[in-house]
Amino acid sequence: MKTTKGKGPARSSREALKPADDRMVGKRKAAARPESKRKVKKDKQAKKDPNKPKRPPSAFFVFLEEFRKTFKKENPNIKAVSAVGKAGGEKWKSMSQAEKAPYEAKAAKKKTEYEKLMNAYNKKQSVDEDGDEESERSKSEVNDEDEASAEEAQEDEEEEEEDDDDDDDED
DNA sequence: CGGGTGATTGTTACA
DNA sequence: TGTAACAATCACCCG
Prior knowledge:
The protein is mostly helical. The protein has a domain at 59-128: DNA Binding (I), subunit A (Orthogonal Bundle), CATH 1.10.30. It has helices spanning 2-5, 11-14, 59-74, 81-94, 97-126, 132-155. Helix 3 (59-74) crosses helix 4 (81-94), helix 3 packs across helix 5 and helix 5 (97-126) packs antiparallel against helix 6. The protein is flat, with a radius of gyration of 21 Å. The structure holds a DNA duplex.
């Protein structure tokens, strides 16, 4: 399903695709790291867990999510993910920690939730096979907690602030 | 038709 | 301590 949408502009935009011709399946920093399995996210996990907590987006990703919208908005012609990544990364480094602060705050929040999910996930794994029913019960509990926490999380909006203005960098 | 890949950095978890 | 791998996104390509 999702692939169908890609056929739109198709090759025309291909120009916007990665300028580097290495679009091939080459690895990106393979040489940098020794074995470097950094890419290949194929099997991911041998077993698929029912609700395995995915790692929360780092501050960079939080910023990137928003950046992606803006980037695409100003660069509707560019649809390459790598382009946004590069641009985002560049800008990210250009930003001062103060500006990254809000993103970091959000990331911190996600991390907290992630820890929570891990707790639930951990519980699930601990479940004994005989407690199938029990496991369901636990799930309910977790769900309940999850909802409650989610609500709380939503409320907080951050604004921790940052006074350390000394360093900063910038241009 | 579907999955895999490209790129960015951060963060997390294991040895 | 350090590495290794994964987190999102989206268009495009191979089998």
